[in-house]
Amino acid sequence: MQERMKNPAMVLPDGRPSVRMVFLQVSRDQDAGRLTAGQGHFFPARLLDSQFAALEIPQDSERILVLNAQRSPADVVADVVAALGLGTGPAGGTGRAG
Length: 98
What we know:
This protein is an alpha+beta fold. Helices cover 33% and strands 10% of the residues. Strands 1-2 form a two-stranded parallel sheet.
């Protein structure tokens, strides 16, 4: 994730300060496995190394939630929901981050 993309005001209209960014961190090998296992993926595998070389992991001082995504998608979603304080509200609705 390049520095210019870490600022929500740079990538979102009207600079919405309540928006939270989540960085899902995986190893290069796991990402390569997911890429080759996918059918008809738009991203060419030959670009993977250059993307990892340019990758800038968010720092603790930045307002970006960094989560280990080397688990099942359901577990990763549960981690995001818990970390952002989201949950199921009345009548099955989704709560809002507070």
